[in-house]
Amino acid sequence: MAFLTIILLDLDDIKILIILPPLFLLGFLASHHAEKILGKDSGHIVIDEFCGCLAAVLFLPKNIAYLTAAFVLFRAFDILKPPPIRKIEEIVPGGMGIMLDDLLAGIYTCLCLQLWRYLSA
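Below the sequence we write its predicted structure tokens.
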């Protein structure tokens, strides 16, 4: 859904950089309270994935190839939780832990795609 939003709203890097911090803060507050009702990192909490997806495409071309690659890599990192993502999720409680693990998955995704872009140039 986030990648579709990027296309439909024509979000460039400046807009993402403006949107991401307040969205992260909102996500932290909302997921902190939602976790008390829904349980630890419930699948019903999706604002964390949305923020992670925005981070995943920063400073990359916003075309179908990069957005598709970002989606696949982000989902892989989000599911597999390579170090230190799993550790962050374990040691940081509440809404901050929920938000940080997906933000890190997005950063991992962005770094991988930046490397791919650099090596394929």
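Residues 32 and 95 are 4 Å apart (CA to CA).
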